[in-house]
Design brief:
With 383 residues, this protein is an alpha/beta fold. It has one domain: TIM Barrel. It is built from 15 helices and 11 strands. The strands form 2 sheets. An 8-stranded parallel β-barrel has the order 3-4-5-6-7-8-9-10, surrounded by 4 helices. Helix 13 links the parallel strand 8 and strand 9. The longest helix has 18 residues. The radius of gyration is 20 Å and the shape is globular. The two termini are 31 Å apart.
Length: 383
């Protein structure tokens, strides 16, 4: 395969994940997963280094009787690799303006809601609130409105809060490589970009208008992030849009490609399930709590190093029980509306929060579970 030289020091193939993705068929992949048998699961569990084919077995219905065993293995691997620690982070929503139509999102352009974008003073108020709570890892979130909250707006927000936090991540619209390079120079550490679903036809149904309707551009975003030298890339699918097993397989396939290609970069996986919002899309495919436990453990058995994150979308009881089974980072006291902590607590949320406990309550729960709370995952002096 031909290689190209990158400014980040990688020898990068002149291809992207899209080329690999196009060689797979969704229906055939789903058939392969559902055809796995007990012997395939036992083989996957016994392997020291598990393949993407082993991952299919571990997320298959055939693995259901082995979930308890998978959970024990996942817990042991996580403790070996990460110790008895868990990272705390908080999202900070800067804007709900959006130029996309997304059937599952409260910020969708078709929803008649008051639109709000924080100014400098408001950004600092929200940041100070979270800093006072103890957070050193902040996730900046906006709707996808390039003219209103584009690269210049995000760059300015990072400038405003850079001295307050050790770790600044973002979850905004996909950008070009040069934009990511610019934001990295400002102090951006990580970018979360979820494909939502890897089922291309279903993707079109849920994203009929706006830049997000471009499936391929979104699919290739992690490649642009890798080439820009972003320190950490977060992947995931929105469970409920399509069969969670197939979407998870393609997420894992994407992860393995990125790890091989951009080997200096760290990676994380998130597990958002469709939650109620303004607009009210019902899940097409239900993902049960048992399914999600199975998936989290399967990811840990596939990859000892990948970070696994769980948000306040999930219920209290579920989060309490999952933190010792493979999760490495958790959010708390999240507000999913711009200015939701201090500036404008009553504005419309992107989706409903399920775990509404305070930061102090979540911290106490984690400590009762024997976990040491980590407020950041790197020091500026290391970079």
């Amino acid at each position: 395969m031909k290689k190209i030289k990158s400014d980040t020091g990688y020898q990068i193939p002149d291809t992207t994940f899209k080329n690999i993705f196009k060689t797979y068929n969704w229906d055939k992949t789903l058939e392969d997963i559902y055809s796995k048998r007990e012997g395939d699961v036992l083989k996957a569990l016994s392997n020291k280094h598990r393949s993407i084919e082993d991952f299919k077995a571990l997320i298959s219905p055939a693995a259901k009787p082995f979930i308890e065993h998978m959970a024990q293995m996942s817990s042991q691997i996580t403790k070996k690799r990460f110790g008895n620690t868990i990272q705390m982070y908080a999202p900070m929503y800067l804007s709900n303006e959006c130029q996309n139509i997304c059937t599952y999102c409260g910020f969708s352009m078709t929803n008649k809601i008051p639109r709000r974008t924080l100014n400098d003073t408001e950004i600092l108020k929200e940041a100070d609130f979270l800093k006072d709570k103890g957070y050193d890892h902040i996730l900046l979130v906006t709707g996808e409105a390039n003219k209103t909250v584009g690269v210049d707006y995000i760059g300015n927000a990072i400038d405003l809060i850079r001295d307050k936090f050790a770790n600044i991540s973002m979850e905004v619209q996909p950008m070009d490589q040069t934009d990511y390079e610019f934001l990295k120079s400002k102090g951006l550490y990580a970018v979360l970009v979820y494909q939502e679903t890897y089922h291309q036809e279903e993707y079109k149904k849920h994203h009929p208008k706006g830049r997000k309707s471009n499936f391929d551009y979104r699919l290739e975003t992690p490649d642009r992030l890798g080439r820009a030298g972003i320190h950490k890339i977060g992947l995931g699918a929105l469970f409920g849009l399509e069969d969670w097993r197939a979407d998870s397989f393609f997420t894992a396939l994407h992860l393995k490609y990125l790890q091989k290609t951009y080997w200096k970069t760290k990676y994380s996986i998130s597990f958002p399930r469709l939650r109620p919002h303004s607009g009210g899309l019902e899940p097409k495919v239900e993902m049960t709590d048992s399914d999600l436990v199975q998936l989290i453990c399967a990811y840990r058995l596939l990859d000892e190093d990948v970070e696994l994150s769980i948000s306040t979308r999930e219920r209290e009881v579920f989060r309490d029980n999952i933190v010792n089974l493979g999760i490495t980072s958790i959010s708390a006291e999240s507000k999913t509306n711009p200015g939701g902590y201090v500036v404008e607590p009553s504005s419309l949320e992107q989706f409903e929060i399920s775990d509404e406990r305070s930061t102090e309550q979540i911290t106490a729960m984690l400590q009762q579970k024997g976990l040491d709370v980590v407020w950041k995952d790197w020091d500026k002096s290391w970079l």
